[in-house]
Design a protein that fits this description.
Helix content is 82%, strand content 0%.
């Protein structure tokens, strides 16, 4: 299976930027190969274009999120069962209930399967502008981070990303959650202060 995926990656790389755009678009809704698999080698081949490739990947991925939203809206929960287990579906539900739109950012930035969240956003009737905005933040943060690493480290970027990128995205995801919780706490504190003053 891994050899098949590798062959598909190599075949898609032959299409260059078009292949990258296609993979980034489809991965947001159903395709199993993450765009990083094409973004990294293309950027390593042309480091001066790393940020441009990151931008294209972000745009394609966010546009693909619309397809995921539409799939969720029209086909709903049954389609998710072909991708992940019922247990994971319930975990995604918990993410949406607890973090709302922030869950989209976390999924876009971390190794969590992004397609699950775009489909679930359609099931949960998330507003399209909310999906687009937070997807752009999450996906952009991920792909531009890879672009900056390649731009900075050059040929040494690949081993660095392979060894450390998952950890970086998890830490980044935790920081996003922390910032979100602090923001919510400050909002709650402000609301309580206003309520107390009015009394």
């Amino acid at each position: 299976m891994s050899e098949l995926m590798h062959n598909i990656e190599q075949w898609l790389l032959e299409f260059g930027v078009f292949g990258l755009f296609l993979v980034a678009f489809t991965e947001s809704s159903f395709f199993p190969i993450p765009p990083d698999m094409l973004l990294i080698p293309l950027s390593l081949a042309q480091p001066e274009k790393a940020l441009w490739f990151a931008f294209l990947t972000t745009v394609a991925s966010v546009l693909g999120a619309l397809l995921g939203w539409y799939i969720g809206k029209k086909l709903g929960r049954p389609i998710l069962r072909y991708i992940i287990s019922e247990e994971r579906i319930e975990k995604v539900e918990q993410y949406f209930q607890k973090y709302g739109a922030m869950a989209i950012v976390i999924a876009g930035f971390t190794p969590i399967p992004y397609k699950v969240f775009t489909i679930f956003s359609g099931i949960s009737n998330v507003k399209i502008r909310t999906l687009l905005f937070w997807s752009f933040i999450g996906r952009g943060a991920r792909f531009f981070l890879e672009g900056f690493i390649i731009l900075t480290l050059g040929a040494h970027a690949k081993p660095f990303i392979e060894e450390n990128f998952t950890l970086l995205t998890i830490v980044g995801g935790l920081l996003i959650i922390l910032c979100f919780l602090v923001y919510k706490w400050m909002q709650r504190k402000k609301t309580n202060s206003i309520t107390s003053w009015q009394k």
